[in-house]
Design a protein that fits this description.
The complex is a heterodimer of chains A (about 400) and B (about 270). With about 400 residues, chain A is α/β, with parallel strands linked by helices. Chain A is built from 13 helices and 12 strands. In chain A, α7 packs parallel to α8. Classes of the chains: A alpha/beta (about 400), B alpha/beta (about 270).
């Protein structure tokens, strides 16, 4: 990685004071036997205190690796570049001792599987006391008192008695509550949650999401919430970043991204998800042949063709172009930039099609047209098209060259 | 009303809890399935939803006769199969097939795709002619959207979604009447999940399959099924036509389940300023 700065996301907008967390052109490369995996390939975002950013993506999109990098929890062999500013400190520049002091204190994390994140041979109370005393110079008795308080805070009944429980004696939902209690032990400024409800039943998931929302309000912490579930994002996040093949392809307020998505990958995701009520927007037409009168959904799901690319040799240009039904030949050569959508400065998408073209496509999809119909009805115009060479919207590097 | 293909009456499965090593004394039982009734109409897709431990997978295993029921009746095409054994059981199993949640552990890693899909044919000694069997397997691979030329490849060369397709090809090898799908898409990413759901819908229509679709995901069940039964603690608490049950659930547990699903705002109704 050379010193050349290549902001995929230029012009980070100032918004009501200094961001608590600011990530700039973060890259994480993992050397493996088969080659270097570009797990995170230049992402930028910022997050203010008290807000929640949802990072969504499929397996291998880099969402978890990017979250782990915030905590400095990447594998030893990983190569990181870019910049992470957290509350006035540059995290990538901190030595491991300083980072350790931050982790579990101002920065905390909860994981998908609470059973493997809790020590099976220690009582819950002991583990909580340890988490508190690792960062605070308090007596054991006081720490124990605080531990009981924390269990109470996360809604575990009879907290004093539960301090004596072992993790295996708790249900999945209760274990996740204990994990949350532990993460909150020192009132972190930022909580990173990696698929914390994925392993839980839907009723328990609803409880945990409600708990996280309440705690966030009470403690005023910021949250980075990693998930594959757009429904969960709709429930919990203020802003959302959609990741594909190591890059953020779309970012904006949750409401905007889910109701007026601007990237073909986001459209594809939304059209792939069966809905509980109504006909999902952007779902395909309810054609006679496809429709069984008694069956639930209105239209057919229209899946994204193909499957996510290898991050060892990702496709050139726009990483999504091989699966994108609207891709033009140019898109295999040019890297898109995460650029604001005209009139919506906080809503950004990394797509090489004109934003007006994208708006026209989405409005057709939303009205029930199939991908094919929408494509036939809209002339695909490239932002790369204007005559006279390079345009402002393109990455400032020779076409065809990949990052590295 | 079409003929029911499968009728389950008062099906019970209790797993005994025992104490002691040599003299095992029973002191209780886990009532995994505790007296359920289920009727599957031929050619339809029936959903069975519920949360972890509600007994939905045990029900599937009982119908497949992978487990011995403690009590009750399972009538398949008019015949009680709850206690069949030996040759009669083997013959019955040609008509039933199952696909599983985990596409990684349900395929033998040491066997080629061709031999995995051909195995049901081999077990039942159908199409003993090698060329004919190979043709049939390639037809099956093609019907689930796999390249028939991948006959000699091994499971590790395929992604999760493709492995689920292989499992499906194997399940369809004997042209079963009833296909039981136990959480077939839970392990898959959303974009791949939709591909498999559409494939299942298509095959069900084409082959006139009766499908028992087991899932914890109410939205997926709505997409796939005409009828649905909601299970809790080994019992069916509510069942009916999908649209009706989702629109006006009567049991409090069904209501709780439906309310707990995180919803994506319906973009079609959103007015964009």
């Amino acid at each position: 990685m050379s010193g050349v700065i290549n902001f995929r996301d230029e012009g980070i907008r100032p918004q009501g004071g200094v961001a608590l967390l600011r990530v700039q052109d973060l890259r994480v490369q993992l050397p493996t036997e088969d080659g270097v995996v570009r797990a995170v390939d230049g992402i930028s975002y910022e997050l203010h205190a008290g807000r929640t950013l949802g990072i969504v993506g499929e397996s291998g999109s880099g969402k978890t690796v990017s979250a782990l990098a915030l905590m400095g929890l990447q594998p030893k062999s990983a190569r990181l570049s870019g910049r992470i500013d957290f509350d006035g400190r540059e995290l990538l520049a901190l030595d491991s001792r300083k980072l350790r002091a931050l982790r579990g204190d101002e920065l905390a994390m909860i994981f998908q599987d609470p059973l493997s994140s809790l020590h099976p041979l220690h009582r819950v109370g002991w583990q909580l006391v340890e988490a508190i005393r690792a960062h605070r110079d308090v007596a054991k008795a006081a720490a124990r008192e605080r531990a009981a308080e924390l269990l109470d805070l996360v809604g575990i009944p009879d907290p004093r008695a539960r301090l004596r429980a072992y993790p295996h004696e708790l249900s999945g939902g209760q274990r996740q509550r204990v994990m949350i209690a532990m993460a909150l032990a020192n009132e972190p400024k930022l909580l990173i949650a990696d698929e914390p409800t994925t392993a839980l039943d839907v009723t328990v998931q609803a409880q945990i999401l409600a708990l996280l929302k309440r705690l966030q309000r009470e403690l005023g912490m910021a949250m980075v919430f990693v998930t594959h579930d757009l429904g969960v994002v709709a429930e919990i996040a203020d802003e959302v970043a959609v990741m594909y093949a190591g890059r953020i392809v779309e970012r904006g307020s949750t409401e905007r991204v889910l109701s007026a998505p601007s990237h073909p990958y986001t459209w594809g995701l939304l059209r792939s998800i069966p809905r509980l009520e109504g006909g999902a927007a952007g779902h395909g037409p309810a054609s006679g042949a496809a429709r069984d009168s008694d069956r639930g959904s209105v239209g057919e799901l229209e899946p994204i063709a193909g499957r996510p690319p290898s991050l060892i040799s990702p496709p050139s240009g726009c990483h999504f172009h091989p699966r994108c039904p609207y891709a033009l030949p140019e898109h295999a050569r040019v890297d898109p930039v995460l650029a604001p959508i005209p009139g919506e400065p906080s809503h950004r998408a990394a797509c090489l099609l004109e934003s007006a073209v994208r708006a026209a496509l989405w409005s057709r999809l939303r009205d029930g047209e199939s991908v094919e119909q929408a494509r036939a009805g809209v002339e695909l115009v490239d932002i790369a098209a204007p005559p006279g060479g390079a345009t402002a919207g393109l990455a400032n590097e020779p076409a065809g060259e990949t990052h590295g | 009303m079409a003929e029911p293909l499968l009728e389950v009456r008062g099906l019970v499965k209790h797993f005994p809890l025992t104490r002691g090593v040599i003299l095992q004394r029973q002191f209780g039982a886990v009532k995994a399935v505790d007296g359920i009734d289920l009727t599957l109409t031929a050619g339809q897709t029936h959903g069975l939803v519920g949360e972890t431990g509600c007994g939905k997978s045990t029900t599937a295993r009982l119908i497949m006769r992978l487990l011995e029921p403690t009590g009750g009746e399972i009538r398949f095409a008019g015949r009680d199969i709850a206690h069949l054994g030996g040759g009669a059981l083997r013959a019955m199993r040609r008509e039933l097939a199952m696909i599983f949640q985990d596409p990684y552990s349900s395929l033998n890693p040491r066997r080629t795709i061709g031999s995995i899909v051909a195995e049901p044919l081999a077990i039942h000694n159908l199409q003993p002619d090698r060329a004919a069997r190979r043709r049939r397997v390639q037809e099956l691979l093609d019907s689930v959207g796999l390249n028939p030329e991948h006959y000699n490849r091994y499971p590790h060369e395929f992604s999760g979604g493709q492995r689920q397709r292989i499992g499906l090809a194997r399940a369809l090898a004997l042209s079963p009447k009833l296909l039981i799908a136990d959480e077939p898409v839970s392990a898959l990413d959303v974009s791949i999940q939709a591909q498999i759901l559409n494939l299942l819908r298509e095959l069900q229509r084409e082959l006139g399959l009766t499908l028992l679709f087991i899932s914890h995901d109410l939205s997926v069940v709505r997409y796939m099924c005409e009828r649905v039964a909601v299970m809790q603690h080994g019992k069916i608490v509510e069942s009916g036509a999908v649209e009706e049950l989702y629109r006006s659930p009567t049991h409090p547990y069904t209501r709780e389940l439906l309310a707990a699903v995180p919803k994506i705002p319906d973009d079609r109704r959103t007015i964009i300023a």
